[in-house]
Amino acid sequence: MPPVQTPTPPKGATHPGTRAHNERLILGLIRRLGPLPKAEIARQTGLSAQSVSVIIKALEGDGLLSRGKPQRGRIGQPSIPMELAADGAYFLGLSVGRRRLELVLVDFLGEIVDRRQEPVTTPAPDEVLAFARSATSDLTAPLPQARIAGLGIALPGHLWDWPETTAMSDWRHRDLATELSDLPYPVHILNDASAACGAELIFGTADLPRDFLYVFIGHFIGGGLVLDGCLQTGRRGNAAALGSMPVGSPGGPFTQLIDMASLVTLEQLLTPHGTAIPATPTRWTLPPRVVELWLDGAATGLAQALAAATCVVDVDCVVLDGWLPEDLRADLVMRTQAQLDAHPLPGIETPRLRAGAIGPDARALGAASLPLSHRFLVDRTVYPGG
User: Fold this and answer.
1) What are phi and psi for residue 205, nearest 5 degrees?
2) Which domains does the chain have, with CATH numbers?
3) pTM for the predicted model, two decimal places
């Protein structure tokens, strides 16, 4: 078995014109590891103590860093850890979902400080635009505009392929980022599952491997692929489009994963029982036999898809998240892992599953992480060309 990869943190640059790079490097390091004293920042980045002091002074002046409580108990002067300032910058994240639109306001620490939601029957372009303009105006009104770094949009791919209404066909010729370009800050857009994966990278746990496959279960199901710590979106933005993967099903030779491991499938199973999926992703009280049927089918489909994906891309683990109560997600992770372990593929390492760290807010938080990445993270830390 090959050795587990050890992430190598990016190092600082010392040649002229690299001040912005080093500022991003230090901000990203503190974001990943938490508050750090200057000496540790210098050790981690390879920058000189003098360079670190100059950069930190500038970041303090810009309101992006603040001084934490002195750390005592060692010989000499107590060290003062530097930490991100929550109000240093704000980011907006718009999530376009099948049943609801949501816009979140996120601070520099990655905490959602406010949000707006609107239920929809089908997310038509003009309706999304109207909500985005109204909600952004409402959420940003109390804030200094200079602190708002941008708006990110998490949008499902190929909305015009949804077999809902003819209104969805309008998406084929619409570009939300362009149509919202009159806003006073940058607008970025990404596939919603890839954005959710980006949230896991930026705001998730520090022990994530450098290579992993990501799965997000919502009304439909999507995925993300991370290689060498960087999100791979593909030439057309369709990388890790797991929902489209063909899998075997009890009712026929093949179907798509979206038909087995999506909440729309659970919704269809609940309809004859006169109940529906609750409006919030907290603990659900649903007919146990229906939930059991859905979990078994979803785990079977996921195991097939993940086994096939692992034959193509050698990843260390699979992160599974979704718009699900925590207990239901944990059950699905356990069942899927059991299916994978029960049917190993010779010559292939069975991937290990783990639950995502973000949960139901992953898509909206991932949308907000787009302007954060473009403005404050080192290139290729998360998004290509970030």
Assistant:
1) -75, 150
2) 19-84 (1.10.10.10), 88-199+363-376 (3.30.420.40), 206-356 (3.30.420.40)
3) 0.89
